[in-house]
Amino acid sequence: MASEPRVVITGMGWVTPLGHSVQSVWEALMAGRSGVGKISRFDAATFKTNFASEVKNYRLEDHLPSAEQHADAGLNAKFALGAAAQAFRQAGLDQPSVKLNPRRFGLYLGSGEGTLDFDNYAAAHLAGWDESARRVSGQKWAASAYQRMNPAREIEQEANMTISHVAWAFNCRGPASNCLTACAASIQAIGEAFEIIRRGDADIMFAGGAHSMIHPLGITGFIRLTALSSRSDEYTTVPRPFDQTRDGFVMGEGAGMLVLETLEHAKARGAKILAEIAGYGSSADAFRITDMHPQGDGPKAAMLEALTQAGINPMQLDASGRPPIHYISAHGTGTKENDKIETAAIKAVFGPHAPKIPISSIKSMLGHLIAAAGVSNVISSVMAIKSGWVPPTINYKTPDAGLDLDYVPNTPRNLTDQGGVRACLCNAYGFGGQNDCVVVRAV
Amino acid sequence: MSKEVVITGIGAVSALGVGVQPLWEGLCAGKSGLRPISRFDAQGFPSKLAGEVENFSARDLVPKSYRKAVKVMARDIELAVGAAMEAVSDAGLVTRAALDLEADPASASKLTIPSARMGCHIGAGLISADADELAAAMVTSKDESTSEFDKARWGKSGMENLTPLWMLKYLPNMVACHVTIIHGACGPSNTITCAEASGLLSIGESLRVIQRNDADLCFCGGAESKVNLMGLLRMDFAGRLAPTPAEATDGSSVVRPYDPNATGGLLGEGAGLLILESKQSATARNARVYAEVVGFGSAHSPRRPSYRGQRGIAADFNPAEPDEGFEFAIANALDDAKLSPSDIDAVVTLGSGVPSVDLGEAGALKKVFGSHLPDIEIVTVGPNIGNCMAGIGGLLAAVATKAVSEQKLPARLNAGAPVNGLRAGPAPARSATLRHVLAVSSSLGGQNAAIILRPARGI
Asked: Could you give all domains of chain B from N- to C-terminal order, each with its CATH number?
């Protein structure tokens, strides 16, 4: 397969609860800061979980000169536009000397739906309710909805609107798709964009994701699933990935975006290369709608596929005697089930080498960015490769039986003395048994 | 080298009935399933007709052990699950659905394809929560003095009136998830959410996954139902729907594909799923092959996604201009198949009846096919089954597959006057020599996807 082109990352952008640029978010992660706070988006005082990790003080016009053209966009699309603008600039695509062929400029996003207009939505349901029939009257519902709901806001909730905004803002007319595989979406988007470029169907692509589910019904849905941490009195100490006392994830929001292109294309235009995507794996548990496969077969299959494509044998040490993967950016949600099964799957893949690989969950600081979680793991891995440092898993106090890997507890780690970070594995798993992994490698 | 990929199974659920046969026979007979909406009182909406699937429940189709799970399936999921059951049986596959692997692990040897080699790519939309179920829970948090929703009460206890798994009914990827669980498909799986382009994008992704040898077989297509309160409201807001008089009963005369004076489209609901398989696998198991998939292309339209208070989402999108994304998607598919425009004998499209959409598509078809266009038959399903959104691409592909395999064109309904140069006027079903058939869709939002099929050969 030597003839297949290599795919490199030349730009990155990040809008998260810990900052609105790659540099500021990375510094926050290295400082072990948390983005978690009381929910400000709506009054959640009585909700079992009344905290989340929110993006604060974000203004699209700080990132995109044409921001007013996207005034109607949902929060997720605005996050994505900001992240895309940063990635576009870092890749040098804003330079007048760069002449992109729009037909060869594609995008593959893993972006979520827009934020629900909850108050008007609830009002229409109440107005429509017919108590005697115990159902909603379409006539009464429609009368209320047409009076209250804002057309632009409703249309912007469709799950393909983020990609529409990004394509318009940056004139992408090549291959275009958006996937929404829950929490695995943006790793899957990166993986599929990687395959599209490798196949020669595009020269350059945006790949990443965006999401915001911090609205009353989004929080309700996850509370009912008992997936969220409910330590509302000690919210500054959660989530606690891999810790024995972990009790769920913390809802986050944001966007991450990459510019991907062939190595050749990047070199030809003199772009600075940040790292390469070396392998991609995807699998389905096909087990249950709620639970992961108890042996972690799905995550294991996805990791192995990504490693194999990257030409990495997980059981073989590299030339310097280290495990062949220097850092794993874990899915690490902080739920009982995920962290246990992810640990088991990592052990199954790397065997005796697993305990020697630093593994961390940046969700311990960022919260869970849902569709944007995977790309965040990739950006974080690229920064680890560039700096030689890996971010910590914060809120880690009590080891859990069987969860005995190196989770880089509480403080970041400097690996430069050991030769730095050259190869990383990034995991993302979604409800419904969706598993996606990519290998990120130094060039 | 990339592998050759063929279609060995079809499953469809649409307003013309449950199954591919009712769809194909209904199209050939010129039937329409667009009727007054019966599921709820739609008199409060400008558009009161739609293509509903009648007498359908996934309960009747899934394995007995899976019946309980139907309770946590939104309508969209049920439609896909039903289509997948048909596609599997049509393809002559033994999947987990037909076996009891727990009681008899040894029966795994009867599986046609190993689990890890089966993938699943199903396009889905933003699934609407069941209004009756949600409202019944929400009224427990109504403040009787103000008649308003009391969020504090909801947070404290009201939300407990929702079943714990409530949200899992509505996550888009649960459509593919249920299909993978029922049939034990553990290979690459994805959920593409690009409105009307989702189904063909998903088929394209399955094609690539099999070509690069990441799976031997994939379920692919799409499913959606927007025939519900939120769906009807949003698509009306988006300017996609034709207003219909209260007494109108025949939707086929409302949806007038490629007519510049048409008044809009109507919604449908449905699922279309194909079984895509490597030619190698199909040959090895001596499967019946409907057609070969020889090309795929996608592209994004340069269209500003903005709502300007008028009907039609793309206010800056000039309907007189060809839709460049639609054009590039077709051109990319032709390049991929190494074909020229004159190799295409028919184009299968929605034919939405929304002039700003249809004229953009017509302009693009003129640009791609030039002087050949008058010789190319346009197959439209909009007047028959309505716009099934993420479900439409899979249904278009199912129709294209039947056309290629039977060398026949279905009848065409059109109560309007399509633009000059486009063979989209009314026509009866007829035999035709179809060397290559293109299925293509554009979406609300500007995503476009196209696939090219040809008759099976050398198998």
From this structure: 1-126+171-459 (3.40.47.10), 131-161 (no CATH)
